[in-house]
Amino acid sequence: MKITGITTEEYRWPRHKPITNGKHTYTHSGLGLVKIETDEPITGIGLGGTGLVGRATIEYLKKELIGEDPIDVERLWHKMWVPKLVGRRGLTTRAISAIDIGLWDIRAKVAGLPLYKLLGGFRDRVPTYIAGGYYEEGKGLNELAQEMQDNVEMGARAVKMKVGAVPMREDVERVKVAREAVGPDVKLMVDANCAYRYYEAIQLARRIEEYDIFWFEEPVAPDDYEGHRKLAEATSIPIATGENEYTRYGFRDLIEHNAVAILNADAKVLGGVTEFMKVVALAQAHDLDIAPHGSQDIHVHLVSAIANGLILEFYRDSVDPMWGKMYHHTLRLNDDGTVSPPNVPGIGVDPNYEALEPYRIA
What we know:
The chain has helices at residues 51-65, 73-80, 91-111, 115-119, 141-154, 168-182, 198-208, 225-234, 247-256, 267-270, 272-285, 296-305, 353-356; strands at residues 3-20, 25-38, 43-47, 126-131, 158-162, 187-191, 213-217, 239-241, 262-263, 289-290, 312-314, 338-339. With 362 residues, it is α/β, with parallel strands linked by helices. α1 crosses α3, α2 (73-80) packs antiparallel against α3 (91-111) and α5 (141-154) packs parallel to α6.
């Protein structure tokens, strides 16, 4: 089998209304696809690779990949990731990630297995939390409480909310309201998206500990390993981070600082499935859990495949107006609050081009 072509597609659409986390506001959502054609009737679909840098990187890497066997993921990863030129951190590694995900889609399709089965098949239902709790115009405490209650009514056994964009006393009140809305038996996470200095994060953590917080995510800047460590030593709340970490080397350094309890590795960021599985093994050697950040469509397979997969992040229609429309088959919560990976060969991503086409930008 040989790779004969690689193309990219990018779609972008407005959200219901802008959403804000601890540091950033997002007016639009979107989808990036990388299609890897072969000389057999099998096409791999990778997720990501968007924007000028992503598309340019993929175009640059074509010459390294055309004519190669897509099954050889380890060799091709190292052929792409050459930090003097492409890789190490940033958008070029994200582009490599998108290609690598597409290669694994091919690999699983050739094997006739869902990706999670090919990678290990640890389970076919994974615990899940609904991500939300963003700041929005006109969204007060009552609206936040209603959102959290709606999540629980959908079947969620865990929910996440944002902190860091308003004065600390307001966020403490928001956390209190969220806990009261979901009750004592639903896990509640908070996510600051790197909004704090470590001493501020310590102040917040101490003020919200009484609300039984399952984890405090991205409390400080990604490279502030010492800040993560100081916070971890000062609070009983587990610290989670890693969505902005790259490759096994970044996670090695994060782990060596005794900085976190839960790793939010993102296959679309850190280097794809190939590198994600190395981070998984590194975490297992240190008895740490993986709770991936971002796209449920790839990560449902990865959490299902591994023994130290803790929980899956899940986005619903309140965050993305194209939820349930961009694919022909949409992941949904099971009756026990879990999510199951698609039981089809590959990743199981089947874009709904009729719905997507009006939003294509590249």
